[in-house]
Amino acid sequence: GAPAADAGLTAAKAQVLASSTRPTQINVKTPLTKPVPAGKSIIFISCGTPTCAQESDIIKSATDKLQWTLETINTDGSPEQNKSAWDTAVRKTPTAILYTATDRTIIDSQLKAAAAANIFVSACCTIDPPKDGLNYVIGDANTNKVVGKDLAALAAVNNNGSGSVLYVDLPVFPIL
């Protein structure tokens, strides 16, 4: 009931509303100037969690629309399986390799081999910056700061401004 606490809960409610409201339009205004290239091949290296399996389904939806091929290599998330999956992916020389939540130190030599083979590499959910064979990162530490603030606001709203939050960092997935 204190004014500062009430103001904080009001701000948290506004943040939850803003971040959970579905957009009504796509804000990308730049049209494609050339046809979408045909025959691209994508390999997705799954991190071994149910969420990564869902990511594979999302990527498959996109590659199907583009008439590209997608191969998913499933792992259990262990360094050994990730290295093996990467060795396989680089050997197949796809157009691109996508992966989630694997620390660069585990796959550094494979990233460099992918760069040498001119394979585009994109990652989600890593604290590794895009360089030395890693071309693009989404879901990096800066993005996850926003997600963390949204989740903290949701916890505050769901508990009417009371309660506690526990943050856990897993060594296998430092981005968490």
Report what the structure shows.
This protein is an alpha/beta fold. The protein is built from 5 helices and 5 strands; from the N terminus they run H-E-H-E-H-E-H-E-E-H. A 5-stranded parallel sheet has the order 2-1-3-4-5, sandwiched between helices.
Distinctive features:
single chain; alpha/beta; 176 residues; 5-stranded parallel sheet; 5 helices
Coarse structural class = alpha/beta
Rounded mean pLDDT score: 89
Query: Strand-and-helix sequence, N→C?
Result: HEHEHEHEEH
Helix content: 40-55%
How far apart, in Å, are the first and last alpha carbons?
A: 33 Å
Largest beta sheet: strand ordering = 2-1-3-4-5
Radius of gyration, taken over Cα atoms and rounded to an integer in Å: 20 Å
Shape descriptor reads globular
Tell me what portion of residues adopts beta-strand conformation.
5-15%
Mind sketching the topology for me?
Layout: H1 3-20, E1 41-45, H2 50-66, E2 69-73, H3 79-92, E3 96-100, H4 104-116, E4 120-124, E5 136-138, H5 141-158
Parallel strand pairs: 1-2, 1-3, 3-4, 4-5
Helix pairs in contact: 1-5, 3-4
